[in-house]
Records
---
Amino acid sequence: MIVQLLVTGIALGSMYGLVALGYHITWVTSRTMNFSQGHAVMAGAVVAFAFYVGLGWPLWAAVLATLVILAALGIGLERVAVRPFFRVASPAWLLSTIACGIIAENVAMLTFGKDARAFPSVLTQKPILVGGAGFYAQELLIPVVGLLLMGGVQLFYHRTGYGKQLKAVAYNPEAAGLMGIHIPRAVMCAYGLSALLAGIAGVLLAPVLNVAATMGTIIGLKAFAVAIIGGLNSAPGIMVAGLGYGLVESFVAGYLSTGAREIIGFALVILVLVVRPWGLLGSRPARRV
Amino acid sequence: MTWVAWGCLAAAAGSLPLFTANTYYLYVAASVGLLTIVTSGLNVLVGFTGQMSLGHAGFYAIGAYAAAVLTTRVGWSGWAAILVAILVAALVGAGVAGAALRVTGPYLAMVTIAFGIIVEGILVEWVSVTGGPGGIFNIPKPSLHAFYWVIMGGAAVSLWLVANLRRSAWGRAFLAVKGSDVAAESLGLSAYYVRIMAFTVSAGFAGAAGGLFALLNGYVSPDSFTLQTSILFLLALLFGGEGRVAGPVAGSIALTLLPEFLTSLADFRLILYGGLLMCSIYWLPTGVVGALTRRGDSDRDRDGDSDSDSDRDGNRDRDGDRDSGGAAPLLQVERASLAFGGVAALSEVTLAVPARGIQAVIGPNGAGKTTLLNALSGFYVPDSGGIRLREVPVAGRPPYAIARLGVARTFQTAQVFGDLSVAENVAVGVAGPRLGSVVAALVGAPWTRAAEARLRRRALALLAEAGLTEWVERPADALPAGLRRRLEIVRALARKPRLLLLDEPAAGLAPAEIAELDAYLARLRDTGGPAVVLVEHHMDLVMAVSDHITVLDYGRVIASGTPEAVRTNPAVIEAYLGVSE
Amino acid sequence: MSALTVSGVTVGYGAIQVLREVSLTVPAGQIVTIVGGNGAGKTTLLKTVAGVLRPWRGTVAVGGEAIGGRPSYWVARRGVVLVPEGRGIFGDQTVRENLLLGALARREGRDAASVAADLERNLTLFPALRDRLDGPAGGLSGGQQQMLALARGLMAQPRVLLLDEPSMGLSPLFVRQIFDAIGRLRHGGLTILLVEQMAAQALALADYAYILERGAITLEGPAASVREDPAVMHAYLGRGDRRSTPR
């Protein structure tokens, strides 16, 4: 049973981490984020379902189409809900992205329906048995993909020229513009990438959880918690926090109850923030005196 | 909002039961009232103090379930139950605030969200107390007609309480912490505790509304207290206009009535909800009330007391505080050292500031002057060495504690409280940490009013001395840059400090203005003002006005003496003054 | 070498108008200074030229090409570089990374070798930066940050350099160094618009001067004669240089 919980925990945790990276990327570029990142995950699952099950496309085509659509949605969200406020340094992006998420959920309910549906996948048909515990190949694939992506993002930001430009935009958008950095494009890229990661998480999770229009909210909240306790500006922190959170959730659900899962999970989040207010590996924003 | 508008609103609310016996309309109106109570409290947190909460449904729930449990299980009366609901919600609010308010921005949002989810989870899981997913039924329900008045009365009282709060020292403290928490700390306010108080007050309001909600409906269940509920609260406030007393009313009316008109579109409810949110964000950034009224009017009441007593209290305080001069230095810095990331900003700095006179600290950039000032005022903590204020060690104490010991300061970029008027800025200085009881502020107790009158008189007198009388009622961020700095100094002096730290007060001033500053500082010294430590670059000012100059370079003291001595010191010339032409 | 022309610019923030019909010219290869007190609109003017603000009315042109109303990243890539008040350096990156970011806006010589050569040249101009090349830019003192900001601006190989109060918050020695550096830049053919409060220094350095008061130009002329103007002497030169130490 422990192995089972371990695997589930790591799988879920790496997905939380992946989605949380989406928060990190847009935060590090523009000091804003898509507060409905969870709904982007849902969109990834729902759109993939529509192509694969609804239209009968081959899996690879469905996934590709999903990623393209998600990236476009991310760019669209930035244009509509973030850019107007980013320019004037208003915190209204918080609520406007929440609003878009609410709308997205309603659209999904109207088109996809209110019920959860299963996502068929070869990787979840036959459980692999190891030492008396069974888990799906999908659950093994998830952390691998997740960790690879996270590593890639990290490299991008700190080692590449464009990544450093994006960091400059976050630090001081006006000054970055004076350097000739194309600000709107930078923020747009960040949001596109962030939605893409959420979409990938949605596609990977769809066979494991079931696809439902309402699946986004709680995933988004947990991923947000992971981003916060990892430290918004620290990708390694987020990776660690994601895995940690996933494992805690898994074991609490396994040994206590699923009801306690949310309570204990979020209570731990508060506890971490009391002890380390800026996240495990995050840094306090410098107080200019 | 003008009295006419308030009057119409009260008339409409009051007359509704006379026009209709339809309980549904009364119920909807009562819902508006409940939402007004919650959003008024949230206004104190979000509008006044600039914080955020996406978990206030949690306090609403605590209030509702407390009332439910007390009336059904323990048999208390509705009134008593609601009172307890308020207290419990406020207490929990203080606790959550203690955890949440150590951080800002998204981190703060997270803690409030987590709190809301935890409460929701507990409501579902703790079946023995909360009745689980089914909730609690059979709460004794007063008749709707009677209870309607109670709720409307509650809403009116909420608005009145918040209006009182805005006019009090607590209200100004909230806005000060929102405007510049650094400046607020330098005036003796602990930003952390001020925010906790705002949070607690807002939680109490939500708890009250929750208790009333339980009694209005006769049952409570976890479905009413979700994250969406918290978002609704915030949306109602922001749509109506945060920071304004009337905002919650407008927002509550809009957000309660709109779904009623759109019941036929129930499936699209969320889309419309989201769309409304987007529209209000785009086109009504300051809310409905903000769009309808101009800035700077309405919520600031002029206190008309014309007490002809001169500043009796003020003079008495000053005498009491005056140092006897004496030989002991007011401030003693001993071998203070401070490094940032391996670079030594201060290196074994020793300095003595007597109780009178103007000390200048000069030096090239990177010499550590502002670092020194920040260490003296508590914003930085030295790694080693000590700082003693009148023999009391202060290194390591938080800025507000040091401020309360009689240290006041200005900042390189003038930190005025933009949401407050010029007079209110100075009033924050006059009051400092003496805010009185928040409950007294909420109800506008008579002794609070008297204290207010005194504060205002003193503030106006100080502003008159500084030549700022024509700006007195204007919002502080309308001041041009040179006058902002002057306001900052007046506000700092309002604290009647023993020590005034000025961080490059002449930066950005034209030569004529620098000459004025020169004269002002000299006057300050000659009329028994505080000891002054002046960090500056403008050599004319420094040479003209200082009694003593300390020169820093690379964090070390390289010279110390009278202006003449320093000016001719070869080490100083080489490091700082450059070659004479 | 390009000339900068500002013509009839009216602009402000929100509902507040700051500049009224401001017109000025910076001939190619010269230093023009704008002197004015607080709130006169100097920073607003530079921000409008640099594309941070869009003018309500009027035009801005460089070398005959209109740039008014275009966003700042476009203007920067056209060779009009602003070194802002407050410096705008990226504190979370190193000094070197900051300088390299400055090179982004270059139109020519974008290859690594040219950039490295320019980096070397700028470090020679501002030696204090050399020791701290790989340290965090946020750890520099105010004066060092000002030098970094100036060096970074130069990395973009600007045609026109806009300087917003480079002396602000600097000690007299640093002010001297900065003004010396600016003077040397002129000899390299750079067109410079210098906004300053330190009137004496600025007027000594510039070829031509404008006085900006409450959003409008009230006086202009060759710097030497503006310096002699009695009103200017009274308002901006104060009591004059009482001591020989630089202000």
Note: Chain B has a mean pLDDT of 84.
---
Amino acid sequence: LMVAMSLGSQDSRAQGYWPAADTDEWACRLCPEQSQRDGRVTAGVGHVSDSSAKFGDYTGLDESGPYWLGELDVRTRNGEGSYTEAQVDNLGLDSRQVRLLYGEQGRYDIGFEYQQIPHFVAEQAQTPFLGVGTQVLTLPANWERASTTRGMSQLDPSLKRFSPTLERETYGLNAGARRNDRWDYSVDFRRTEQQGTKLQGASFLNTAVVLPVTVDRVTERMDARLSYREDRWYLQAAYYGSQFDNNADSVIWDNPFNSLAEGGDRGRMAQEPGNEFHQLTLSGRWQPGRLLQTSGRLAVGRLRQDESFLPATINPRVGAINQPALSLDGRVDTLNGQVRALIQPWSALSVVAELYYDDRDNRTPRSEFTPVRSDLVVAPTQFNRPYSFERAGSKLRADLKAGSGTTVSAGLSRETMERSFQETEKTSTTDYWGEVRTAVTQTLDVRLKGGQERRRFVEHYRPLEDLVPGENPLLRRYHLGERDRDQVRASVDYLPRDWMTLSVSLDYAKDDYFNTRIGLTEARELSHSLDISVRPKENLSIYAFATRQRIDSDQAGSDNFSTPDWTGHQRDRVDTFGVGIEREALLDGLDVGLDYSHSFGRGEIEMESRASAAPFPDLKTNLSRVELFARYQLSDQISLGLNYGYERYRSDDFFIDQVTPDTVANLLSTGHQSPRYSVQVGSVSVTYQFW
Amino acid sequence: AQTDVHEALPEFSDQGADTCLRCHSGDTIEGIFSTPHAVASDPETPFAQQQCESCHGPGGDHAGRLRPGQERPAPLAFAHQGSASREQEAAICLGCHQSQERSHWQGSVHERQGVGCTDCHSVHTPHDPVMNRQEQAGVCFDCHTRERAQSLQASTHPMRQGQMACTECHQPHGTLNNAMLVRGTLNETCFECHAEKRGPFLWEHAPAAEDCASCHVPHGSNHTALLRRRAPLLCQECHSRAGHPSIAQTGERLPEGRPSAALLGGSCTNCHSQVHGSNHPSGRNLSR
């Protein structure tokens, strides 16, 4: 019966999928009246046991002590279809979110959104610099420069602790309207302000310092869309605009080391320049019938950047430097598009053909600039390289239903990539794969997919001639190098009962950079996971999962700029597992739940060189978290909530552990250590629910 | 063909929703009356049309009298043992919803893999978890187990904390690009929130302008800043110039040995910190 009701033979009408019914007698007397309002309001108080920047990352729970809990989720509506929605989360924290929406269903809506995201960059950093939070970082008046950090006599007394944090605040306004069931209009505007302090390295030739750099950025984005639909086709025209402004366009800092040349006691580093991107997109769908369904998209964009250049140096001893331009007049034209055709000659076979194109045409002028090396000495002139690339490809895949529960699929794709100013102007990638999905029994689904991808040079790889000193001629940059990639993916889903699911999955990929002698030579990634989900009763659900991920890479290098004389192996292992249980109505009106998850990651870096290389300690991250909740329904409208969470995090990172500000002779670091914390969070809340 | 389909279908019930509600009740059923689907004043909603049977299909035989021993036929669609395929159920939803971001559903990865609308969406409740930023990732992680594990790693986007929804980068109803990204390309998607890295810079870092995934993994990493691997090895996959870029950094360069600025702290980025590009006239080596 249902096979006869083929998908393609149905109109995709707004009036619905089924034929019209005579509904004159359908009074809907038993239908509950749509409530005028419903929702819930939650208020409460919580407590955080310990301060931790890492625990507070994105949550706002960075400081020990009490916090307010405020959540709201309310809807109102009337019989004419007008509605209002209000949603507030984390009201008492720096991670608060607000969403308001008003509209008339099927006609229009307008909305407002606010979101605050705190991001903590590092724990307990230290710096001797004054002026943190400004664009000029100075050293104390009594600072004594030295050639090494150990020689800086005023370093210890000058160090002050600071917490590098970044905060995003996003304000959004959106509106949408529909007319005649055919036309849709929408506009969405968002403004994100990002402020705070990041850590950034800055150098004078062979000495470096990690600076607390002020961040003050604004990004405004707008999406405007106009679309029209008919039964068998749909067309949308859209504009996307994004403007980025940087209110902190540079940082000036005092050189804490002995100056290596006259006047080299101060440096200036650029920050990201303001830019703007505008894009027009036309997309649509055309479905003449069952045999052919097509959709496509074409986008034309322009990226501009024309901020004034900073001077080549702020060293007054270097003298005036003339540059070919006062600003970049940077311009990148983008063109990308895709077309897809789905052909179904009969119900068991579907063939999808796709074409895609992506062009980054960098029209930025190429000029000869005179740099000043590290604000110290004039260096040889250099031309900028405005990189362009052009990616074009096609894909073909077929799915054949070979029986009631089996689908056999195969695919082939080919892509060419052309790049300017890089070692090879053109590469070509071919990918082919096969897949079988089969229901072995009514309760057992198996999927198996395997494929190979081959990337080859179309144009020879030649080291860049204008790069002095040049790269080792045996190097093949990893994103350009010839590569064989083999991939396997398998999964089994077993449903022994209606209320039980077991799933096992495996992903494996191996990249062989067979033509690379210097650089990345091989990479492997394996992940497998087990999932169990059980719902033995309507009010009891239990889940458990375990995932293991392994990421290995091998690479080679040459200390003396000749043939490979060292290799590096990086092996990352991450084991993750979790269990959870939720029981509704454990006692009359009492719901309880528990979630536990654990992630243990270990990274090994092993170096082999002619001299026996001293080993690195392992990199470790270890996260355990438990969450418990209980919700007791005091009355129809009022419930009491009790939440408890415990999170323990340990990490070892030899890149920063035991690295104090003066550990490295030529690096004045911030001395922050890898994070570790044990934090308990508890909260009590009252929820008022109405409908 | 349309006439044949109509003839093959069972009849509609006698009284629409009133027929259904005589047997089916409770919050998990009646929650639909707190959703937009039940706003009868909007002529495009199910309850302005064939009510429950707008989605579940004509239910005359399901609601009809049974002969002794006869098993009650299941509703056609969105029901346990319903005879509609997932493809047909998707077509029912798309009958009203196939505009805007759902226009590229046909041929998309989720469509090909047999994912149905109700695998992700809960329709009979005003609180559909997948439509909520704080709960959405939990729905996606039911199938995307590797991404769930990555969300617990040391460096992640704030999905686990409910500050970022999967749909801020992905369009699960299908797009025409890889990984169902909301913008035309990967970099355009990343620049949505990281517009400062968009450039164009005077001195560009070629792989950064081309593909953020050259160095970063989006869903989680145990290395800082969502990096694929650690510097200096990450940088040495592409840089081998004579002098310090090509030298192997080993355990002898740890604090207890001869500590090196090319290894410790930010490694290469202690000096070359403008890894996404520099607009400083003296920033060719990405250190200004």
Note: Residues 171 and 180 of chain B are 5 Å apart (CA to CA).
